[in-house]
Amino acid sequence: MWRFELLIPILTSVILGVEVSNTPFRDCGSVNASVEHVHVNPCHTSPCSLYKGNNASIIIEFRVHTPNIMPGNAIVMGVVSGMEIPFPLKEPNICKSIDQGCPLNSTEKIYAFKFETNISEDYPSLNFHVTWKLLNNLNATFLCVQVPLALTQKP
Ligand SMILES: *[C@@H]1O[C@H](CO)[C@@H](O)[C@H](O)[C@H]1NC(C)=O
Ligand SMILES: *[C@@H]1O[C@H](CO)[C@@H](O)[C@H](O)[C@H]1NC(C)=O
Ligand SMILES: *[C@@H]1O[C@H](CO)[C@@H](O)[C@H](O)[C@H]1NC(C)=O
Ligand SMILES: *[C@@H]1O[C@H](CO)[C@@H](O)[C@H](O)[C@H]1NC(C)=O
Ligand SMILES: *[C@@H]1O[C@H](CO)[C@@H](O)[C@H](O)[C@H]1NC(C)=O
């Protein structure tokens, strides 16, 4: 199921004058963790459009259900027409991208995984899905989230 949580972020955006909207996402097999919110920036359209030659960022907010997850690497894939295309990460170590750092030892906290990249001009303009998998130190996926996105030129 896609999650649409539009009203509160729209109100928040109006009040704060910034983009903090929640992006619809699909859980694709999280184990011992649950995704609370996903924020993509920029996100002026549905699905969110990322502008070629510009920065784009994603924040994945999640909880862990067991206090003993030892994170390993993150894997990102673009899914275009059912084909998975790996997107190599300069820094795959999950712990370096989590605000609170590691270990993920609290089932009470909401952890925030943040990633930013400059979108290459070389990509075609298209709609696709991006899949983020967070692996533990034994390479088992503990969090998987899929987000619909578009690549376009900045209007
Ligand atoms: C992204 O990369 C393009 C091409 O290299 C560059 O012109 C642009 O300034 C970069 N944008 C940011 C926000 O770093
Ligand atoms: C989690 O780990 C941090 C850093 O090692 C530590 O300061 C904190 O007390 C730990 N929390 C729990 C609930 O074990
Ligand atoms: C754009 O993203 C890069 C990471 O790819 C980052 O180093 C840089 O600070 C960002 N620039 C802006 C203006 O946010
Ligand atoms: C996890 O995967 C990486 C990359 O494929 C590999 O180098 C590493 O040895 C694997 N670790 C385990 C514990 O299987
Ligand atoms: C999930 O938690 C159980 C119980 O703590 C553990 O045995 C299992 O390895 C964990 N799986 C992952 C992918 O973290």
From TrEMBL:
What Gene3D superfamilies does this protein's entry cite? Answer: 2.60.40.770
Any idea which UniProt keywords this protein has?
Answer: Secreted, Signal
The keyword Metal-binding appears for this protein? no
An annotated GO cellular component: extracellular region
Q: Name one GO molecular function term.
A: sterol binding
Which compartments is it annotated to reside in? Answer: Secreted
Q: What is its main location?
A: secreted
A biological process (GO) annotation for this entry?
sterol transport
Q: Is Secreted among the key words of this record?
A: yes
Q: Where is the signal peptide?
A: 1-17
Record-annotated MD-2-related lipid-recognition domain positions? 25-149
Q: Name one Pfam family in it.
A: E1_DerP2_DerF2
**Record-stated family:** Belongs to the NPC2 family.
Its recorded name reads: MD2 domain protein hepatopancreas type
Q: What organism is this sequence from?
A: Hemigrapsus sanguineus
